[in-house]
Amino acid sequence: MSDRYIDPERAQFDAFKALPRDTVIQMLNLVRFKAAATYPDGHPLEGKGLTGAEAYANYGKDSGPVFQRVGGSVVWSGTMEAMVIGPEDELWDAAFIARYPNSGAFMEMVTDPVYREAVIHRQAAVETSRLIRCAPKASRSETVFG
Prior knowledge:
This protein has four helices and four strands. The protein is an alpha+beta fold. It has a single domain (10-134), classed as Alpha-Beta Plaits. The protein has a four-stranded antiparallel sheet with strand order 2-3-1-4. It is globular. The mean pLDDT is 92.
């Protein structure tokens, strides 16, 4: 199995679709960029010397309007400083949580033609990533452990 995770595998996507579709979801995103973006042959940005971070910024710019239109929002973002528990070689350049009103909104986004064009930037930018669907707790008063 590869240690490069860019797009979901069919079984992972099927498992996502089998979960409840009418509840708020939050997606934990962990992303490591390539040093140099690798666009497909014939893409207008192929060979232009963009870094992975620059290509990912293009992904955000181009996909952002679709993300907002479906009701998505970023509820938290941060910069990794140190791995306290976990593999020392698992370093992340971007970490954020995206909130969607329901999984249907996420599905609408990833199947939108504008988004599908924008995702080429993400594929060019990302060395590896993790995308983890989470269900928010019902009450903010609950502890992390409860």
